[in-house]
């Protein structure tokens, strides 16, 4: 019988330190998710369904390895988290699935529908590809050998959502149990059929198109995900030598990799269902210069209209409130030689997509999250949006170049930077921001920008 795995987000140990996740005044994310998880496990077992709870003392990587040691293709795995946002009015549940997998998206919708039937007061924020997560990649949706989803059960920073999770915990657990049971039933027959197929045709074949031309070798479909021969990565200019997170499998004496994982190497990955063809485009095939995407100094690839349309997808209200912001970023970046795509996406990370919070105030025009020159907690403030953008651009130039400023200095911390010490986006991590995923988050926004513009 198919098994169901369920993990409570956080609660384990990362780098030897207990990880409670989001910490609130009276509770933690780990405490809330563990209580819900335990009720779900008890309910599923009462229905005679085999369910395994991931031990709470494991790190994220250890938890994934624990599941992979025990799971089969017909099993399913869910990790539950609590969402957090600077605006307490943001609420609701969402489920993340591996990008480019429409079957997994339908599984995510099964979970959301089941939860809403039991807890009608909890809004649904929908099924989302994991490329829309802050880092553009979720290990739980990418690294498991069985179908997996990651759910934000509700926003713990919302008083309404937190009250529902705490006061209607039994109903929440019943909704999750209903969804998991339905999801498991939908997966098991398909997986069982695949395992009884003759070995020569276990995995269906698909065509592969690279930069508009058909590749002579075929790919395969495994667990509803497209896989391509590993040698194809070299043709796309992707070096996977030191890439332990890339999923590999050996089939028919050929090593295959999961196609969607190439997206992290700036390869466009799309699917034509009518012709059953995987569509891949390299960065050079999209007109993006090799090695330029993550370099602070250089030219951006997006137009003003493309920046505005992308902003609309992440914060529609901001398009009206900041209607000149895209123009300002292109103009100010061009003067100092900064890649405006990087600067714009960094602004989205620092300002929570112009929702602000985390100590930033819209009235300060501090779009780059620049600190005070005196070290105070309030950060810097600028008289206009243009000056605020200019200060951010100048600070990026301080890190990315040894060249002098073209315009008069408005960045209050320019002189504190060792010039040219961080020419790449990821090198801003730990310098501009202490978030260990800071660079990844900026690049994740850039990939979404290029996707929305048809460049990726």
Gross geometry: globular
Mean pLDDT, nearest integer?
91
Q: How many beta-strand runs?
A: 16
What percentage of amino acids are in beta strands? Answer: 15-25%
Helix content: 25-40%
Q: Counting H and I runs of at least 4 residues, what is the number of helices?
A: 13
Query: At the third CATH level, what is the topology name of the largest domain?
Result: Aminopeptidase
- For the record, what is the CATH homologous superfamily label of the largest domain? Zn-dependent exopeptidases
Structural class: alpha/beta
CATH architecture of the largest domain: 3-Layer(aba) Sandwich
Indicate the low-confidence ranges by residue numbers: 195-201
- Please provide the ordered H/E string of secondary-structure elements: EEEHEHEEHEHEHHEEEEHEEEEHHHHHH
Radius of gyration: 23 Å
CATH class of the largest domain: Alpha Beta
Major sheet characteristics:
8 strands, mixed
The N- and C-terminal alpha carbons lie at a distance of 41 Å
Number of domains: 3
């Amino acid at each position: 019988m198919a098994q169901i795995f369920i993990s409570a987000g956080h609660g384990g140990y990362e780098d030897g330190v207990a990880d409670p996740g989001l910490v609130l005044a009276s509770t933690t994310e780990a405490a809330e998710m563990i209580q819900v998880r335990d009720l779900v496990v008890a309910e599923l077992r009462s229905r005679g369904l085999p369910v395994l709870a991931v031990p709470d003392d494991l790190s994220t990587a250890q938890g994934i390895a624990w599941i992979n040691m025990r799971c089969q293709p017909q099993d399913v795995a869910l990790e539950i988290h609590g969402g957090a946002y600077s605006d307490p009015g943001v609420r609701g549940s969402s489920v993340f699935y591996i990008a480019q997998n429409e079957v997994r998206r339908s599984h995510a919708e099964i979970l959301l529908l089941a939860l809403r039937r039991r807890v009608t007061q909890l809004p649904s924020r929908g099924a989302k590809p994991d490329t829309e997560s802050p880092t553009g990649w979720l290990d739980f949706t990418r690294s498991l050998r069985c179908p997996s989803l990651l759910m934000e059960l509700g926003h713990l920073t919302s008083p309404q959502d937190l009250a529902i999770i705490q006061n209607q915990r039994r109903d929440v657990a019943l909704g999750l149990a209903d969804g998991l049971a339905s999801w498991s039933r939908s997966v098991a027959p398909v997986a069982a059929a695949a395992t009884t197929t003759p070995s020569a045709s276990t995995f269906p074949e698909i065509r592969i198109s690279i930069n508009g031309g058909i590749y002579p070798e075929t790919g395969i479909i495994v667990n509803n995900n497209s896989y391509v021969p590993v040698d194809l990565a070299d043709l796309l200019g992707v070096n996977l030598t030191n890439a332990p997170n890339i999923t590999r499998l050996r089939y028919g004496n050929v090593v295959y990799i999961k196609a969607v994982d190439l997206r992290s190497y700036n390869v466009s990955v799309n699917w034509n269902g009518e012709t059953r063809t995987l569509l891949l485009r390299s960065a050079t095939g999209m007109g993006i210069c090799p090695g330029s995407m993550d370099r602070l100094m250089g030219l951006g690839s997006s137009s003003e209209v493309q920046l505005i349309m992308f902003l609309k997808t992440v914060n529609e209200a901001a398009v009206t409130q900041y209607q000149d912001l895209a123009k300002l970023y292109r103009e100010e970046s061009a003067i100092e030689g900064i890649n405006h795509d990087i600067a714009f996406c960094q602004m989205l990370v620092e300002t929570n997509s112009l929702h602000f919070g985390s100590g930033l105030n819209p009235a300060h025009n501090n779009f780059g999250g620049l600190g005070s020159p005196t070290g105070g907690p309030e950060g810097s403030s600028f008289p206009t949006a243009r000056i605020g953008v200019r200060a951010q651009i100048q600070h990026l130039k301080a890190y990315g170049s040894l060249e002098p400023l073209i315009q008069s200095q408005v960045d209050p911390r320019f002189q504190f930077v060792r010039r040219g010490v961080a020419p790449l986006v990821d090198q801003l991590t730990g310098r501009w921001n202490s978030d260990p995923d800071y660079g990844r988050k900026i690049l994740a926004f850039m990939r979404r920008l290029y996707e929305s513009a048809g460049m990726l």
